[in-house]
Write a structure and sequence with these properties.
single chain, 441 residues, alpha/beta, eight-stranded mixed sheet, globular
Length: 441
Amino acid sequence: MRRSLVLAGAAVTVLGLLAGCSSGDGSGADSGRTTLKVAALEGGYGRDMYTRVVKAYETSHPDIDVQLQISKSIEDEITPNMKAGRYPDVVVLGQGRKAALTETLVKDKALEDLTPVLKEKIPGEDRTVGDKLTKGIVGNLNTNPYGTDQTYLMPMYYAPTGLFHNKGLFEQKGWKVPATWDEMFALGDTAKKQGIPLFTYPTAGYLDSFFFALLADIGGEQFYTDVMTYKKDVWKTANARKALDITTRLLGYAAPTTVGYANEQDFTKNQQLILDDKALFMPNGTWIVGEMADAPRAKGFQWALTPLPAATAGGKRYITTSAESAWVPSAAQHKDAAKEFIAYLYSDEAAKIFAESHAIQPVEGIASSLTGENAGFYKVYEDPSVSALVGGFASTAPVEGVDIKATLFDTANSIISGDTTEDKWQSALNDASEKLRQAGD
């Protein structure tokens, strides 16, 4: 599964890369070398890129042993140790996952300030990290969760998200990719007559890429910001209702198996619907290509990505940009070494390794070097009518029983099944937003 959007369901696998045995406290005292503990999510990009980057780093830093812990459910592995006071030094794990570990540490203010990393020279290079990063990728609520100038989460990979589909099927049928919602629903009616549902999603969590773009499409960036920062009664507004109206109507076209497969174990079965021409669109990110590389597919299948249809004909469209994160727990033992390692992750050497696994970093100029399907995906940023959207809900003090992401995304399952209504959905969202607003005051 992907980056920060959903929980990848699989058994925990731990890979230790140790040149020698470290001491019990992780200091590497027996060898005179520092043992740097790095934990990373094994998402859709796989594990090989991490093992290669670690090997390259150890080669250029002989005083460092990197102990790499990588898992498809990394939270399950590191959380018990963290509760016992044993923290990794570096964690590569974004926001938006079901376990919400990153969000929890943000809310608890338990992350190290990484603003100095932006001014740090990349090991072996003349440029600083900040000089090399794509403009606008830092300074949003994803990297600066408290709305200040301090950066706590470094953007590791970025990817356009949107509606993925089979370009080959559209060419075969002579269908145009919808540019407006009216065109989308008209296509849904046409496809339904041929037994093809319009929509599915791997899990409801993937609707973050959908909803964030939709909110900006409907009300512009200011409305999007109002929702993300819990403006008073924002979910009672006409723009909010329009977003729920469109979504509820779209969910009425969902593939019948969507809810049943929308879980950690079966999510790839919903993704397979696109490959088998049994659904037209699903929200996802560029990691889908690698994740489903070995899956069977319809003849002539070609991955394609489109932004959401415009809220009004000719209107501006937004595309949610997925940004995975690297961060350092404030209780980490080797914070200085951790910051230097993170700086290295933006080196030309590391970026090349990551790119070979389709993990594209927000480094100036790297997208222009892409080929094949990835090149097509990233061209969406060249469309003058489409703007990138980075960020998410603002962090507040924890509120017991409130998870606005779950309320916004997971309720889609209940809308499809008929277990709740759009009115109740809107009311629950406004209630959650108001509680978080009050917690942030």
